[in-house]
Amino acid sequence: MIIDTDVVTLSRLQFAMTALYHFLFVPLTLGLVWMLAVMEAVYVMTGREVWKRMVQFWGVLFGINFAMGVATGVTMEFQFGMNWAYYSHYVGDIFGAPLAIEGLMAFFLEGTLVGVFFMGWDRISRVKHLLVTCFLALATSLSAVWILIANAWMQHPVGAAFNAQTMRMEVTSFSDVVFNPVAQAKFVHTVSGGYVLGSMFVLSISAWYLLRGRNVDFAKRSMTVAASFGLAAALSVVVLGDTSGYTVSQNQKMKLAAIEAMWHTEPAPAPFTLFGLPDVQERTTHLAVRIPWVMGLIGTHSTDETMPGIAELVDTAKGRIGEGVKAYDAMLMLRQDKNNTQAQATLAAHDQDMGYALLLKRYVDDPRKATPADIQKAADSTIPNVPVLFWAFRIMVGCGIYFIALFALAFWKASKRELTKHRWFLKLALWSLPLPWLAIEMGWIVAEYGRQPWAIEGVLPTALGVSSVSSGQVLTSIGGFVLFYTALAIVDVWLMLKFTRKGPDGLGIWPHNGTIATAGH
Amino acid sequence: MFDYATLRVIWWALLGTLFIGFAIMDGFDFGVAGLLKVLGRNNEERLVLIEGIEATWEGNQVWFILAGGATFAAWPMLYAVSFSGMYLAIFLVLLGFILRPVGFNFRGKVHDPRWASLWDWVLVASGVVVMLISGVAFGNLFLGLPFRFDDDLRMTWQGGLFDLLHPFALLAGLVSLSMLLAHGACWAALKADEVLAARAVKMARWLTLIYAVLYVTAGIWLGYRIPGYAISGAALVEGVSNPLFKQVALGGTWFASYLQYPLFWIAPALAFASAIGVQLLVGRRSVAGFIASSLMVGSTIASAGFALFPFLMPSSLDPRSSLTVWDASSSHGTLSLMLGATALFLPIVIIYTSWVYRVMRGRVTLAQIRAAHGGY
């Protein structure tokens, strides 16, 4: 079997492009929908019209974004089968289930209720409409639960075992898959990230209205909701991001070492490198500015546990490749005679390392015939792209800390009722708008690019997961995605700007003079 | 709870149910979209048609997402082989699914006839492409598809987009297109303004007639000209999911399963009866007409699925590699678990979907559109 490296590269490129693009819209949906629910709850409780108008105005922007999220989400579901056929075969028994349950439990609810949210204002009672909005919000979060259970299994594949008869991984404990600790950390971290984005979106656009003196009452209230929601979310994303870091350190030591550019094991507790220029060739980090203890504390929650460095982890990988070849050999013997008890025992003893033997397939057709040089190459290939991870992680964390500061400031100003007092604050809020997107995309890179060369950590190398398609076919679909996604991005941004500029006043949702009595409805 | 063979049959039936659910629920949205420029002669009329599906198409589309997800979970090999093998065809379908949500949402956001017309064409194209290609893909299943597995169960495929365009497959595509357009017309007859509804009734009658002729032609063609596949010897219904452990013979007839299980004849008979039902009912009792077209859609797909049984996807390149109900499923554990999840959640889905349809019931009239949109 020969893997076409062009197809691998192009398939990875397409997946990264489409996933990063999809991930521009989904977190905003996740965050904005809960703010709509909060605003509508206030409306139902107080009966004050302004809160309903807030739901309707932010709802328009939510709707544009929601459509993009749905449209680009279909790609994700198609793409595993189209471009990652062997992956789909190899792990579909486990990976497919959470995706299907997501459809049944969450996306169905979301897709069915969204129409009533927009078109049902005059058809159902206020309380019923609020319930629709709350269930819509709940459904988006449930959706994230199942998608992240699937993703967490790629990071930390639990509850499954290799079956030589079917040449794939099969589920042994579904509850292990569902209650994967990585899934819980990822869910809270990702959803909080979405809440930060949703809050920033409302905060920034409201700040723009206040800078222009438009929709003042409307914008102030929106900003207050955004500030409180955003502060809670920003704290949760960082604090629970730490849990995420801790879980990573337990099962993805290589990813953590790469994030930290920790070329060799450091004495415990390891320092955190604040700044540095990781050098892949020399396997060292130039101009490193280090803070003692911090990394050890985050990674191990202790002062005496060491964290292995990259060189040491490569040695471990080399050992596991050797063990994996034994499993691979046993698997081939079982293919000849499935009742070979000796082979069954060997496979059972080493199947945890089977994936490491598959790493060799990039260099040699039959892993059993690998030379020490091949094994060295395969072991070296377990190092992800250190400089990219190093910087992506630092940008993400830097943004996270900034969000806490900004939302704390906004919260303080909102409680003192002086949101409009300083123009510099409003400008700061406005120009911070792109940062949550930046942080979220960096987070995706750390999680997914950082897992390379694995599609499923320790189980299936990404390069083996591809379909038997031609590079011409993948180029065609990439071309199509670039064309249509660019066009849609332009239309999306243009519509967002258009409706933001029009604003609640221009759309007739909120009267120009600010008093609700003349708004009529 | 169930043995492996029973679970596989249940999941075969559920796979059919989900695709039929998609075809019935989202089929009329695609049908209405495909007819948008023919049924709606001006912007106001097209708005009536769009408003008639706007509140519910999104939920309906989830039938497809779910059918895809369930195929991934319960029939991972079928998912992997079909999506990667028919790569470019699937990509075109995907584009249809990408453009539709934004088409619905963005169309009304700018009050300009050229803008509206652009998105109208996008909706028409996405509808026609999805309806046609789904049918062509289904038709190809009877012809066998050019794939084979190696010992690692890695699939290779020999052929491209144009190899899918066999005349029989194109006929199947037209069956799908005419059937779902008719179904869409039946929805418009139920939902749209009186003037439009009358036009839709006429359209539904013609389309159903075309569908019936094409369906019968396809049936005869299938019976006399297309060789069937059969598993040689006794099928290992409880066997492991590895297609290479069986032998397949080519040359029988695709009607073999109808001879073996005469109850299967209910499906084509019902398809034909429902087509007559549409003719009789669509003009007088539009709800009954829509139910008839739904039955027509469901039983047509069922009749094709029955003919294939126990095959899911035959291989023309290496018949042994064909995917069947007995050797392409997930493990026993995953099938059981997914059955439990489906049994729990699908009834809930049906309950809230019904509630939404009840909330959004009633015709969309031109007067409403004028009042709400001022023409756009």
Quick rundown:
Chain A is mainly alpha-helical and 521 residues long.
Give the arrangement of secondary structure elements.
The complex is a heterodimer of chains A (about 525) and B (about 375).
Chain A: H1 5-46, H2 49-83, H3 85-119, H4 126-155, E1 160-163, E2 168-171, H5 174-178, H6 181-212, H7 216-251, H8 253-259, E3 272-279, E4 284-291, H9 294-300, H10 310-336, H11 341-350, H12 354-358, H13 372-380, H14 386-415, H15 423-431, H16 434-448, E5 454-456, E6 460-461, H17 471-506
Antiparallel strand pairs in A: 1-2, 3-4, 5-6
Chain B: H1 4-25, H2 27-34, H3 36-39, H4 43-54, H5 57-74, H6 76-85, H7 87-107, H8 113-143, E1 147-149, E2 155-157, H9 167-191, H10 194-225, E3 227-231, E4 248-253, H11 256-260, H12 266-281, H13 286-308, E5 311-313, E6 323-324, H14 332-359, H15 366-373
Helix pairs in contact in B: 1-5, 1-13, 1-14, 2-8, 2-9, 5-6, 5-14, 7-8, 8-9, 9-10, 9-13, 10-12, 12-13
Q: What is the N-to-C order of secondary-structure elements of chain A (H for helix, E for strand)?
A: HHHHEEHHHHEEHHHHHHHHEEH
Percent of residues in helices of chain A: over 70%
Count every beta strand of chain B, where a strand is a DSSP E run of 2 or more residues.
6
Give the terminus-to-terminus CA distance of chain A: 68 Å
How are the strands of the biggest sheet of chain B laid out side by side?
1-2
Mean pLDDT of chain A: 92
Shape of chain B: globular
Average pLDDT value of chain B?
A: 94
The number of distinct helices of chain B, counting runs of at least 4 residues, comes to: 15
Oligomeric state of this protein: heterodimer
Strand content of chain A: 5-15%
Strand order of the largest sheet of chain A: 1-2
- SSE run of chain B: HHHHHHHHEEHHEEHHHEEHH
How many distinct beta strands of chain A? Answer: 6
Cα gyration radius of chain B (Å): 21 Å
